[in-house]
Amino acid sequence: MSSEFTEFFQQLFNALRISGVYALVALGITVIFGLTGIVKFSIGELLTMGAFLTFALWDNTVPYMLAIPIAALGIGALALMLERVAFRHTLENPINGFIVSLGLILVLQNVIIEVWGTTPRAIPPLFTDIWEVGGVRMPVHDWFIIWVTVGLIVALFAFLRLSKYGRAIRACAEDREAAALMGIPVDLVIAGTFVLGGMLAATAGGLLASTNIVNSYLGASFLLKGFAVALVGGLGNIEGAVFAALLLGTTETMAAGYGDRLTDGRLGLEWRDAYVFALMILVLLWRPSGLFRAKGRLQETLQ
Amino acid sequence: MATITGRLGNSISTRYNLSDILGARLPIALLLCVPLFAPQLLSGTRLLSLAVTCAIYVIVANGLHIIFSYNGQLSLAHTSLWGIGAYATALLISHYGTPTILLLPIAGLAAATAAVMIGIPAFRTGGFSFAIITFAFAEILRLVANNWVTLTNGSLGITIFDSPSSIGPISFDTFNHLDNFYYLVLGFAYLSVAAVWIITQSRVGKTFVAIRENESLARSLGINTYLYKLIAFAMSGFFAGVAGVFFVYHQKHIEPGPLSPFGALYTIQFLLMILIGGRLSVLGPAIGAVIVVFGPEATNELLALAGFENVITFGRSQILFGSLLALSVLSAPEGVVGQTRRGYHVFFTSIRRDRERGHGWLRSVLMAFGRAVIPVGANE
Q1: Is B311 on the interface with A (CB under 8 A)?
Q2: Domain that holds residue A182
Q3: Quick check: B265 and A105 CB within 8 A?
Q4: Chain B residues close to A302, C-beta within 8 Å
Q5: Which residues constitute the domain of residue B197?
Q6: Do residue B70 and residue B199 come from a single domain?
Q7: With 60 as the cut, is the pLDDT of residue B192 above it?
Q8: Interface contact flag, B128 A301, Cβ < 8 Å
Q9: Which neighbouring-strand residues pair with B253?
Q10: ipTM higher than 0.85?
């Protein structure tokens, strides 16, 4: 295989890993928005907490594979608490929920610094082998992350599309009042989605702990990427979020790989995030509700 | 209490304007004079330096006040506009030695122009999309400051050693005459408050409020809402740009780090000041800035009397303020100014009513006090 092809597939493989993580964050954001209309910015800090918690567990001899779900459960409990204390009271005015989540960013970020300090941390990869197919180098650990994210996304789709609870969530997203009249415990469903969003973010954080350096700013960068994905896919639209994650993830890795040559070395690797944000802005100018418009009554808040 | 709903941007804004307050309440007029005595009241350079920071924050927060409180658009790129003003200042000083009198309009206009350039695409969407698009622009600006090394010196930033040009015998040297520099910045902080007041009283300001209250209605009345939102954004950018000049003179340095104006979500700090101070009041952001800057200091002083040293660190103060932000949104959407005003009102009506019912003085005053300080009923 020529080196051109090799490099292209290498970037495509990198895109796959990064997109999975973006999709996890974006799915949490999108489900919460679809149901409540709240743009929950503090999800980035839940991701950071998930990463630190996973590290803390791993550091105390809990196996990495087990540390991630435990951390996710812990963050899920925290998300539940925050929903009960704060977000529940903002359901009538989603913009208040947004501002509350901005306040929570300050709280959570500084709690993280108080508890874990500012020393960066990292978990060594679980698998150190590297597969090489036709010159494309694919670390086994990256495959592990890809399969975990794909598995989670498939499970989430099955849950939302096939199970009774998923149907309840979708019913609430369409029309909360009508769902309540049909006997669906709307309050509980809303709390459940906040827990789900928190757990997805924490899982993303746990996975990132073994590929990225964990510090208190980890969440901020993934927060905007997660939102970019959720917005491009159409806030509230879960299929759209997965597609947009692939689109933006690919944009990012392709920009990292080819940006240099396309712009004569002016806008290379270090500008890769700018390509993603620029794409997001362009998509939103073209279609303010994202590529795939979600069903439901919340869309007008985006116009 | 007239209808003040807990909802953001759903109440009549110009009710608590400056003339109302000055005409009706002497205490507020006295409060406005307190900053004039800061160099005498605050001992030590560190505290005076904090006062300078606070005055700069007032200017920045007033800019956000226009676009967020009066026009109802949450721009998360606000501190980046501040950073643009700061970078423009640092570059002009280090390359051309531009005098302060020219720097102020140039930095202000640079930030206002940037605001318009962000606003032209961003205002094509609305609501949350606007907030997130401005957040994306803020990140792009940070990347520019970080990566365009030939212009901005990258992550090392730009350091200058100049102070504002002196006016006659008055030197604004920040090392030896910090009090003069403080008065200079304070003058501009007062100007920014006055400017906000003038804007809110003007036709343009009332149009901003109309757009915030009901954009489609405003549009149906023939108002070019897109244009007016751009004007509001440009105004807020001008404030931020001017504040950038003083930021650079004070700090002597600008870099795109996480704790600089370009830090991700740094705008939350100013949102905090507006919401804690009171978003329906002209003085809200200024009072909020004083609380955010000096609140932790004052608490530490009090706790030091009880033998606890340095309990409220920066991080802990952020935790408290973050909770306070959430709490104020949920239960006191008008912030300190709104609660104080409500307290005044409740206190005196309660006393009058209880006296009319024939209760004793002591009981009337105590009950009135209780009703006034418990911060509930913002929705009543």
Answers
A1: no
A2: 21-219
A3: yes
A4: 125-129
A5: 41-333
A6: yes
A7: yes
A8: yes
A9: B159
A10: yes
